[in-house]
Amino acid sequence: MSNSVKQISPSDLVFKEMPAITNQGYSQESPFMLVDKYVIYGTSTSISRPTDKLSDQVLFEINKLFSFSQLPENWDSYNAAKPSKIAIENAIDFTIRLAQRQQYPFYVAPSPNGDILVELKDDNVTLEFIFGEDGTNRIIGLVDDDEKFEKELNDTNEICSLKWLYCPDGDCFNWE
Amino acid sequence: METVLIGNEDFLLRRIPISPSYVKPDGSISSFAFSLRKGEDGISTDLERLANPEVSVQNKTRFRLARINVGYIRNELNDGLDCIHNPIPDNYAHSLITSNTGKITDSKSRAMARAAQFVY
Hints:
The complex is a heterodimer.
Chain A: H1 3-6, H2 56-67, H3 85-99, E1 107-110, E2 116-122, E3 125-131, E4 137-143, E5 146-152, H4 155-166
Antiparallel strand pairs in A: 1-2, 2-3, 3-4, 4-5
Helix pairs in contact in A: 2-3
Chain B: E1 11-17, E2 42-47, H1 53-56, E3 63-69, H2 70-77, E4 81-85, E5 94-99, H3 106-115, E6 117-118
Antiparallel strand pairs in B: 1-2, 1-3, 2-5, 3-6, 4-5
């Protein structure tokens, strides 16, 4: 694991406003998403410190999560709530922790009720990290789409569930 | 407004957002597409045989359109789920997927998402 990745905390990141983006892949990335691949600019009067220690992939995911904050009420045409700021921040925080283990979300999306989903997947095993609009967070583990567990998200449950997904045999060098 | 009976052979149409997308990278539909919003009595859909898909999709740059069989919802998912015609002033085809418990569980939302097929 790269030590340099550990030096970045969520508070280091400052974003510029951008349109909501899709999960359709890097090739269709919005030209407005990142002004520069290695520096995310802040407001019109400030520039963040460089974030070149984060990989392009994690920056892409963070920007995607941040873009959800630009969604209006009823963005899905079925009265979806505007995604919660605290849920987005918690999801970004988690995505950075995940990147420290060289892992990245399979899928991220806002829920109709303002929560944020960060989904991880390995073959037929799925972990859904749901960051609540009220600041409460939970993890759901699934195998072949059948729910195996649901737990409150805390430090212990986070590491245990990630290990369940990525290192089920318990002999992986970076999961201790 | 006069209502019609929805048969098990009928299909319901539901818009699926593109941006942000409720279609995952592997092409599957997120369960969020078939989950209840706060305060909702049922999941809004259009009854396919009364609907014009071009109208139901509203905006093809923002949404895709998926269809799901009523018989599947009533008989295979069961769990108190039903499909009822619920016309509203600007949409006679409007219908609801309802639950007699007032809740639709995550597992039922996942199952509906798996069973839905894209029209557009």
